[in-house]
């Protein structure tokens, strides 16, 4: 029985180690070069990213500053929205724009809207707020001043016949809540039942009689809360 011949090469002396280890050393050297090169690239790329990042955040910061300045310089927001028509039972289509009409023989202009209604009709809050003043005046008769929660708007209700029971200074009202009854007090004229409704833009420190009146008509008509 003869043993099978060893496979070719099995008995051959191992390949001389030098060239192989030289190749390995060479490979290792190439490897280190690669690693070093990649590292350098990474550092370079990293610094570029940092630079890019810095300039980006700089421009972002600049944009934020510009936004803040623009906002500070912009005119204060516009007008109240979503108002409720302040006399229950009156239709939006029945309103007429009486802003700016001559009053007192041209001595002044009308700074509000007159909403014609029957005497005793419910006056409801056009918007939420706090009753800041319950006031009787020769011109307005029984009046109410309701300030918005953000204190930027004053809603003025005049020629009232009477106030709703819960009405007192400091009381909060919800939009649509009844606050009074339509009347003809003040200079409305006997039997000329209507609600005089005004809106004033208020600065932070403005008192109830101050502020800058604006025309309620487009705000009511644009609100879409027809009743
Ligand atoms: Zn009026």
TrEMBL record:
Segments traversing the membrane: 30-49
InterPro entries reported in the protein's UniProt record: Cell_wall_metabolism_enzyme, Dup_hybrid_motif, M23ase_b-sheet_dom
Record's keyword terms, sorted: Membrane, Transmembrane, Transmembrane helix
Gene3D superfamilies named among the record's database cross-references: Glucose Permease (Domain IIA)
Region of interest: Disordered: 1-23
Biased amino acid composition, Low complexity: 1-12
Pfam families per the UniProt record, alphabetical: Peptidase_M23
Domain M23ase beta-sheet core: 109-215
Protein name (database record): M23 family metallopeptidase
